[in-house]
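Now read the record:
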Amino acid sequence: MISHVLPTYPRVDLAFERGEGAWLIATNGERYLDFTSGVAVNALGHSHPQVVEAVSEQAKKLIHISNLFRIPEGERLAERLCDMSFADTVFFTNSGAEALECAIKTARKYQSASGAPERYRIVTFEGAFHGRTLATLAAGGQKKHLDGFGPVVDGFDQVPFGDLNAVKRAIGPATAAILIEPVQGEGGVRVVPLSFLRALRALCDERGLLLVFDEVQTGIGRTGDLFAYERTGIAPDIMALAKALGGGFPLGACLATTEAAKGMTAGTHGSTFGGNPLAMAAGNAVLDVVLAPGFLDRVRQNALLFKQRLAELKDRHAAVIAEVRGEGLLIGLRTTIPNGEVVDALRAEKLLTVAAGDNVVRLLPPLIVSDAEIADAVARIDRACDKLAQTKLLKAGAAR
């Protein structure tokens, strides 16, 4: 069958007809344990009753209006996000890339509004991923994503991951901000040391720069806190959110302090669909669940349990698993064989995972995952590793 969908994804020949919590049911009736969660989007699993009800009820009343008018549920969601964070103001988008575009524009506009329009460059980090627009691709700086799209958007200076001296060398008279993911997701689930993030905050304060956090993948409970920055003891000036915020509905947000956003006045930015009533209903429903007493405590407990079980697997399967890394339920397995082969082997065991950089397999269970489902996933990983190790031995023997 010929597909008319642009082939920009190497899609697996597998389709699903429905989902239930941490499970997906394929069109052939087979059940898969979903530890991809739509790449960290389905934080509450599939068909969560509170999200389904909120979206269904809102769709009966009003799906879209326009940002030319007040949207009360958007005002409510913005107030809640600000109450729970460092921020004073929020701009709603449809995606993480759009949230990052807003963050980049906000940082540049701040410097312009402060009397320094020449300060527009942003320091970013090798291995980062900030989106697929031309500006966010330039911010990420990865050659494989930039090739063939013409001149790279100017204004971004990549430095090695975790190298503070390189950051200092990159800062010049034209620097406006530093942009970083607290945990590099696509880059291989690489956790940025807390000391490094604190040093960046001090450096920004010293040099008159803004600190921008990309929490598109880490935000809304993925690391065990509502936001990953909470464990650092410092706060950014601007933060991008998306993925889990809508629980599956396209929704992103750019949060900022009043000072950082002072240049973003009427007419400086916009979005036709961003913050529409249906998206706001989804976002508020997600927060209702995630902010309920005990929810994040449970995420932290499950994350600890899962990492302990994975550490045991690493010891048992050293021929396949080289390292367990990550924060909360954003977990990576660095493997000794190509990560694509591991993803395929896990899918054969009906466990869905996703590859990342640095030869890592990402494990992104929904935040509502149960102890039993974690145990089930561990058993599937165990079986896959047994088979992969046997294959590796056979290949080594054939090579001799």
About this structure: The chain has a mean pLDDT of 96. The chain has two domains: 16-34+294-399, 49-290. The two ends are 42 Å apart (CA to CA).
